[in-house]
Each structure stands twice: as structure tokens, then as C-alpha cells.
Design a protein that fits this description.
By secondary structure, the protein is an alpha/beta fold. Helices cover 17% and strands 30% of the residues. The chain is elongated, with a radius of gyration of 21 Å.
Length: 341
Amino acid sequence: MKAMILAGGMSTRLYPLTKEVPKPIVPVVGEPISGHVMRWLSSFGYDEVAINVFYLAELVERTFGDGSRFGVTLHYLRERELTGSAGALKQMEGWFDSTFVVVGCDDLTDADLGSLVRFHKARGALATIGLVEAEEVDQYGVVLLDDDGRITGFQEKPAKGTERSKLANTGIYVFEPAIFERIPAETFFDFGKQVFPELLRDGLPFYAMKLEGAYWRDIGTPDEYRRATDDVLCGRVEIWGARATGVPPSASVASDARIEGPVRVGEGAQIASAARIVGPSVIGDGVRVGEGATLERTIVWNGATIGARATLRDAIVGERYVVGDGETLDGAIVANEPAES
């Protein structure tokens, strides 16, 4: 079965973290977010997966390779320019020959994809959207439904108190190949702004289903990224095929260093004497934590260095970034800038 991961965006909302790290490989507890997406797809039998790449495309391809580590066979669409969510899918026309799934590269979820596909087929739908109920929907597109799940309208990021629905669009879609007839070739085209409003206008079989009991979070902002990381570390969502917490044999932890609460230490990490790490926290692969450093509720990406006696609270440290000896970061997000070309 076939699926597509939409991964072409620049992820500017996560700057500066994503200036050197493209969105599909942003780490969530030690694994690239799109790796989590692939394993989730694979768990429902979607073993042939396309992914569009644009920003730092070669780095994405080196990271994922043929996809086998994540349980899929990966097919790359290398975009020369961004063509929008639907425009990217259009370029895969002909590859999809039966019902298929599309999902965002930055969605962390345990939703029952099988139930969504069954709902879609039972209604003879052309397109179906997966929904979750959210307390606050001002950062999401919300969907209005009739009693059978047919879509009757949309609200895009409604101001608090004006929302007509609490059902948020997850960006998890099920389509029939006939959807390609609704997407023009060689032009920028978007699902939310163009395809979906036109399906609604033309009265086509367009449905949505609430994903009962599902966990879903879009990690596209720092706050949501922190929440998703905390949720995995604290066991509020289960991830497939990856370790959520603990210290691997390849890591070096001084006998008097303290690790408290839910913490994930990466491969080859080094934690020096008298260091203290308080969860929920993540120490990435190859990270060095200096003597006497204190890290609380902090996420450190691969290859970073935390200086001796540094103090970090509610911080995010980007890949290979160096925090100096004695430095204090409180609620900060720090990352390297790309080298001048």
C-alpha cells in the first residue's frame, strides 16, 4: 500500500533550529520526526512511501536512505521549486493506482489509520480528512460536518471564542486517484486553500472522521515541539520501534552524575562528573555534558556540547551547538547559523 509524506516546507516557525536541519529530520526523542511517521505508516501496512524534498534535500536523503530502517521503501520526489501541498502530490500522479494516504512530515500520532481508511471506503469518498478534537483551535483549520461525516464547511485558525467546531484538521488525508483530476499540473496548488474548498463547492463526496482516542501533535512550532517531546518521554504517546527513555551502553555517565525523571540519553553521549539532568529532557547522540552542568526540562540535539557548570532550564540546543562554560540559558532556543557561502 502506498502513502506520501509532504516534506517540502522550510519550517521557518522552528528557526533557528531548522536553519541547518530540515523539518523532516527534526529529532523527537532521538529519531527524526519523519522516521516516526514512516514507522506509523508501516504499522498499518503502508510500505511504499513517497516523500518530496526541497530544502537541504541531500541531507534528508542521507538520513533516510532507502527507508528500510523505518520499515518502508522510500521514493524521493526532488522538487526544484516548491509547488504547494497539492502541487507536490500532483507530480506523483501515475504512481498511485488505488486508495492512498497523505500525511505531513511533522505529525506525531498514534491514530488508527486503518479505521480512517475503512470509513473513507464505506462512504465512497473521493477525499477524507482525519480530525482530532482540540480544546484550543485558533492555530488550526477546523472542520464542520453533518451527521454522516460529510464536510459542510471550514474555518481557518478561528479567533478564540469564534470557532464553530472543535474538530481540527490533522493533515492526515485519504484519497482516491481521481483526486489528481482536481489538481492542475505545473503550478503552485494547495489542499487547504484550493483543492478542499473546490471539492466542497462542487458537492463531491468529501468526508472527515474524528480519530477517537488518538494522539496527534504537529511539531511545527517550538511550543508544540516541546509538548510532543514531553508526551513521548512521559509515556502519553507510544512510538513504534524506537527507545523513548534510558541510557544506552554506548553512553558514558560519570558515577556521581545524576539523572532524574524521564530522560533519554543518546548513543555515545558523555555526561561528566557532578552533572545533573532533570527530565523530561533529551540528550542527543554524541552530546558532551561538562562537569557540574545542570540541565532541567531541556532538549539537546545531536553533537552539541554543554560546558562545565552551565545551567539550562526549559531550553532547546541545536545540532553541534556549543554552550560555553558557566553559561545560563533559561527558556532559550539556540542553534548554529548556516555558514556563509
